[in-house]
């Protein structure tokens, strides 16, 4: 027998072997003879509470009452009654003594007295929290008395515990018994274990053991008295030592005092029913109680009530006790959002409450809910997530972003709503650094390629800005293939002036990624054209960019002259100014587009006083983005009828079969690989110098001036529309042509000038198109050595004046404005 017991138990305080929980440190207080321990599960380490009760024999009165409490706790289930998990009983032999111990395992709780000291609430917040706790205990007592016809028998401060979400729960069921009101004449004890209750908590009829009167009284008479004792101990901050102290009402709130006196009525039949206390007491009507009650029955509320509630919740949460908001309201909101009972407006309150948590707790308590919400098909929730992504984006791990978030967010790139496309684009500023190179190359850049030709000019501009900001996260090969083509071929040629300005700034901010050959042959020729741009801001930025890139070329020149081959191109000291440009681009992405929060700023951004303080392009950019992002209502903006698009489907524009469908040629919307520029060898340089010295023959016909540019233009257009069979090569369709070309050079006879010697013919700027008449005919000079690379004359439909009809070759003076023409018949001449 001894060996058997020794194999079952380990010893006092160490816990028994068959108990699947670890016993930790005890709390300083507990009800009756019980000891309350902290504990954890051996399976997953989750926290629990363990109560133990010991006796010298198995027939000890305390142990018998404890077994009654276990039976009652196991069978009675209510949200405000302590949840039972496990129980066991063991024997420990210590010398000649045998010690019997009962263990009860419950959800993790803390004694109410210790939790009150820990929270240290005062004033209105203390009263609101006490009101919520008393409301919960009163519901538990009402359930026992009115629904189950049971009598708890010892409601007091020690019989209340607090959960991790700060809910109050009733326990200590050792005295719990059925109410025997049918046998009123019987004088036998109705409460078998009433001797466990202290005399200070007993009403007068129980002190006298007047069981006949107790049976004639309502079922709630004894427990209503106990609620009065709990209220006194709660507000006085002292444990009740004798019944006479209940007359001291100085600490009782005035709104609760009438109900407190009715609970402690000397006549049992006149004591207040706990259910009436819940319904009629003025004390329970406060912001905290009403807020939590609304959240607990959220499924029963209609959409109008939900919208009204969640619009007020962000401001209301600041007025409530912070600990209760974080431990009670935040889990309720998370559950409501995950299961769809909360509207999108609730996400604003959820993220605001989550911002009050430490970083570690936010990652555990709030972030999993946010990740789940990205999979929601509710457009309004997705919009709210994207608008507030800067609040939680830093807490997301790279694996979560790459595998769980980006696949859902990417559907917004092809959405029919321009507002949603722009929000998705701006969110990449936070998400792109956490994406893998594979995802960036195979997915993100394809979406950005399409957005750079979007119908909305603000989206095209922000796409260029985003590419400049995420350039550092691209690998070297991708940067070579993407950046120059995206900035020079698309951004600098955009019809929207802020888009051109953004392209210039993006080039300057990413200047460290280009070698001198690319700067001289591709970047500078594209930027110089913009020095005569109609927009003042574009011209200003173009001149700054030209100076910057020329300085880089000059440094390279000086380095080669000195024979310094220590490294690549160095960053100029003046490049520090680019930080401001990049910062402007980043602020334009992160501070705009929050329609729900900054709708009132729409009129301010468009005011003349604000526009006058900014440059022209910045003002246009602000107006475009504000008009796109600041909508009066997200739902009204998204609910408008939108024409069908082949790239989108219902809901959130989900991609069909995981692929992107578009009627346009994919090659026309991508950035394919550019042909590598050939190095200029010494023989080619000698050919160029020789070509400059040999005499140039004039063209045979004036028509050659217009024929070659048109052919060149057609060839260029054909190159833009030529399909490419390589799906991964996104930039070839817009790549700059190679220096060598097979087309004939302009204004040069084939017999006197070889096409291979002209290295600039392929990149010669196309002639400007105009409808105005030239004031003077263009005649190439015979002795002009630059005639072969000179810009072609304007292409017009009208014939030059020198080739018109009339007497002699005298040129007619150009007249401006409309002219009157006198038409006469041949007979009148």
UniProtKB/TrEMBL annotation:
SUPFAM superfamilies: ARM repeat, Protein kinase-like (PK-like). InterPro entries: ARM-like, ARM-type_fold, CIK-Related_Protein, HEAT_type_2, Kinase-like_dom_sf, Prot_kinase_dom. It comes from the Eukaryota. Coiled coil: none annotated. Residues 606-675, 687-829 are annotated as: Disordered. HEAT repeats lie at residues 523-561. Residues 606-638, 701-724 have a biased composition (Polar residues). Residues 770-780, 790-800 have a biased composition (Low complexity). GO terms for molecular function: ATP binding; protein kinase activity. This is Protein kinase domain-containing protein. Pfam families: Pkinase. Residues 2-284 form the Protein kinase domain.
